[in-house]
């Protein structure tokens, strides 16, 4: 990873794309209940807030390991959200 700015951009783009995918699903399935899809959006926003707070943390011992763990967490939580979108019916 190049720097903190790129990590913040990655977090923003990944979770923004997930939210956009939910909106596209809602538009394509306007006849279906949106409670589950709205919950996915809420979870994506909460994930964004948590990850940005971790990125902005000042009291870290090993910055390289800290940011790598954030990147891995973004990947795993992003995949989980995508799986939830794919399971919407």
Describe this structure in words.
With 89 residues, this protein is mostly helical. The protein has one domain (4-87). The chain is 80% helix and 0% strand. It has 3 helices and no strands. It is elongated and about 50 Å long. The relative contact order is 0.18.
* Residue windows where pLDDT falls under 50 for at least 5 positions: none
- Strand content of the residues, in percent? under 5%
Question: What is the count of β-strands?
Answer: 0
Helix content: over 70%
In short:
80% of the residues lie in helices and 0% in strands. With 89 residues, it is an all-alpha fold. The longest helix is centred in the N-terminal third of the chain and has 25 residues, at 4-28.
Chain-wise SSE layout:
Blueprint: H1 4-28, H2 35-55, H3 63-87
Question: What labels describe this entry?
Answer:
about 80% helix; about 90 residues; 3 helices; mainly alpha
């Amino acid at each position: 990873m190049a720097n903190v700015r790129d990590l913040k951009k990655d977090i923003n783009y990944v979770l923004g794309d997930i939210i956009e995918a939910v909106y596209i699903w809602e538009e394509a399935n306007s006849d279906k209940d949106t409670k589950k899809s709205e919950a996915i959006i809420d979870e994506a926003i909460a994930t964004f807030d948590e990850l940005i707070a971790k990125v902005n943390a000042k009291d870290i011992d090993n910055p390289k390991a800290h940011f790598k763990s954030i990147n891995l967490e973004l990947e795993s939580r992003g995949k989980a959200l995508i799986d939830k979108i794919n399971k919407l019916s």
